[in-house]
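Follow-up to my post from last week.
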Amino acid sequence: MQLRYHPYPLQLQHTFTVSGCSRSQTPDVLIAITHQGVTGYGEASMPPYLGESIESVCAFLARVDLFQFDDPLRTDDILSYVMHLDDGEPGAHNYAAKAAIDIALHDLAGRLLGQPIWRLFGLSPEHCTYTTYTIGIDTPDVVRQKVREVEGRFGRLKVKVGIEGDRRLIESIREVSDLPLTVDANQGWSSPEMALEQIEWLATQGVIMVEQPLPKHDLDGLQWLTERSPLPIILDESVQGPEDVIRLKGCCHGINIKLMKCGGLAPARLMIQLARMLGMQVMLGCMTETSCAVTAAAQLAPCADYLDLDGNLLISNDPFQGGMQVINGRVTLQTEPGLGIYEP
Amino acid sequence: MQLRYHPYPLQLQHTFTVSGCSRSQTPDVLIAITHQGVTGYGEASMPPYLGESIESVCAFLARVDLFQFDDPLRTDDILSYVMHLDDGEPGAHNYAAKAAIDIALHDLAGRLLGQPIWRLFGLSPEHCTYTTYTIGIDTPDVVRQKVREVEGRFGRLKVKVGIEGDRRLIESIREVSDLPLTVDANQGWSSPEMALEQIEWLATQGVIMVEQPLPKHDLDGLQWLTERSPLPIILDESVQGPEDVIRLKGCCHGINIKLMKCGGLAPARLMIQLARMLGMQVMLGCMTETSCAVTAAAQLAPCADYLDLDGNLLISNDPFQGGMQVINGRVTLQTEPGLGIYEP
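User reply:
Got it. Predicted complex:
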């Protein structure tokens, strides 16, 4: 098996603001794994706050020796090798790089077996729900304009809250749309009591779920809030991999799984199984990514209660066509083998 | 999809004694699921101590409506339906019946995709270790005779201990063989202190692992023993499904996974992933079963530290040929699609 990779910075259609930072570009690395003339695609997307960079991803990928494996279907061996390649290195943080390999291997396996990945996972694509489309923080005029642009194409909107003026943001949206909303506070509320007050108001505004209301390590606060919140609390920044699902039982109603955080489809599947076992809801999220990584996450969409898979719709230079589509607001899975994406 | 099933009592080659009971027959139900002319095989084996019977298994299977599903690869939906079919029924205990469906569906999926099940699981068959062959409790003469019969064919022996005279049993074996031994006390030792004393002696006799030394609910005793034992402690009766893996962390070095206890390959895979995550060893065991269920368990053998997959070798009326073989003592996986078994 041969591994190739190259940096591919993503251009955002709109400058994007969450509580803490604004940006117009996201660093990204595209990879391809080829075996006997068949190629699987993968991708590492690196939002700056997760600690990876084009340099760190390329340095990690340069150490991955796939020539030692002669069957791409032996994912248990290959992914175990990749997952442990940085064991013992202080501060090692190569989950996006690992996710890229995991995604490309799954794509390759699906193409070699002639099956979409979701089918190899035993899933039913008609269970996919609506994806949210994220409305960034902006002036009321711009927010209303953005909402009007996507009305009809999406069935749910996601709103970034947790900063000054977020009630006005919700009210601006409600002036032009009655779509169900989810909100993401990105750890932005300062206390459990203040968060509860906000959530109780949001519940009156057609909001159906709240993401990461409090700082990620404030588990006591999150537990207190989860016991009282009228809306489901889904944790994102508090969650990285499978171990966290067990650790966070009781501190939330569910978890947001992202391939770039956990290292790919294999750990994501385990997280879903753990969440089900522990009675927790599942959200699937993404970074700003191309159709490659978004379609990879979408392979698990039949298992999710909430989907936030709009990453590829936020960029202007997606190099792929095909893959999952959002049709009438719903995630709609491809029927082609692997990820079903191609470079036009 | 069409489901057929029929009782098929298994005849044991030798009357089998463990601490607590003797028997010469095991109740068993064989099933077949057919879709578009392709058939997958499954099996429910019911050792009496697990609470299922031919009647209970057939009654459960009679309620399973597979006609509602038109794609056997949608295992997430189908197995979820089967797993929850007895929800809320007090004392419901249909894990062997559920395992039969799970096994047949995996066999069918493998046959439809033209792949052995282990390959669809991403595993590498060359990682399979030795399986043990179980020497029942008997007189020293008979024990020596049984050991001589299998010497050369097996690389490890398993000995049932935990009753009067078990040191003499080990010594009888050591007179004729120096193969590594595992021992299974089947909850038979009366106290942690007494168990530790036995284990310390066993460690001097070439024993490499101890199964279920204490009563299944004595977690305090098991934890005390695990902290002190010179040999790995693997739990069997204490373990049923995935929840138990989390619960038993610290009370053992590993777990014995059996398809008839946990409900099939899907929960068994989750148990393996949990055990790895929690740093626990994995043993794969079986009941007295035909080549069908033993070959199904063997699909996960590349993930296991200990294998006890001799169930089909203990019966005289195995209706299947093909499937996994024990070659030079090692589990050797089939390369044919599905389970690779057939009715001659």
